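tmp note - Putative MFS family arabinose efflux permease
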Amino acid sequence: MARQLTRERLEPVPSPADEGLTRRAVLGATIGNMLEFYDFGTYSFFAIQIGQAFFPATDQFASLMLSLGTFGAGFVTRPIGSIVLGSYSDRVGRRPAMTASFAMMSVAVLLLAITPSYETIGFAAPLLAIFARLLQGFALGGEVGPTTAYLMEAAPAKARGLAVSFQPASQQVAATAGALVGEILSLTMTSEALNAYGWRIALLLGAVTLPFGLWLRSVLPETFLRPEAPVLVTRPVRRSPAARRIMSLGFVILASCTITTYVTGYMTTYALNTLHVSAPLAFGATLISNMAGIAAALLGGLLADRAGRRRIMIWPQAAALLMIYPVFLWIAESRSAFALLGGLGTLTLIGTVPYSAFYVSMAESLPRNIRGGAFGTTYAFAIGIFGGTAQLVVTWLIYLTGSALAPAWYMLFASAAGLFAMVMMPETAPLNFERNHRRTSVTARSPP
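out:
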């Protein structure tokens, strides 16, 4: 095992001989992560259709709000899952926690896909849908912390940013797959068929891949129990004030990230309900935005390895903040395909870059023996509070004000708070920077 010196501690990382192991670990972790996020996120693309199936109402707005409320129910159990499975990963290992999370997600998505409609089984239909979402939330809450810790621990120090960037990138891949399925179904099915059973096809397509994902998780190499060289700093068992500060800043940044992500994910419903564009254009806008997010997530991780974590967080976040209102104004006034696709795609491309740098920065800032649980708990509480309510808040703001710019107001507030917290984050990259910003080498010190 080779050793690399970070700003805070000395940790063992895979040597060049372990690069094959690293690639296999990253592939296995991110494919499983992608499948889970596909199953969880597909609900938002078909919120209207699912609302009509499980929550029929005389008022279309009421039906949509009930459906979005059930989408939000999946966020209620995220913090519980993050605490239970995150702590489990810190005690037993990353692989068993990730495998358990994936198994629970498999059960939940199958239940949601095969539950009959309200017209068939009555009140039992929404109850089963809500239970499935609660189980999905628990599973996904226990996914992010262990997976992020796993990716960081499996990668060499010089490539941690890129390795960890596969976590947010795989989420974007999942969202892209969901949007692509929605686009294909909307082009090949009538609106009646899409409302009746098209959304079930989208969920079942994800369910088909679940056995492969479960097998892939079960054979991953474990990183948590890998033998380590002596460390320079003894890590505390309990969360130190420094760790709590990182978790607090991380909560704000993740809240900003999730509001932006879920408002962007809401654009399919927004384009259909508020802008009244065609279904193919609405799904196409989400598809383009998510493809831009994939590229931006990987780019952010690569740049974080080359230029450090803080500057790759701060400057793209500031640029995205300045772009939000003009982009939404352009979309709302023109309602053209070019504005919707180009504006949203560009905003996503710039606005997603900072979060890969943040993911690796927070993972590096947390002690290893609490990394999975602390990261996952911070993530889940931020997502649970702000992600689960983002689409409800935006729908309510549009309904209350009658303004198509309501999503921009919410995103502006969230992005400004995220930028402030990013400025307060420490630099954790295993690099030295001179005044002229040139990268210099870092040498490991032997423990005293």
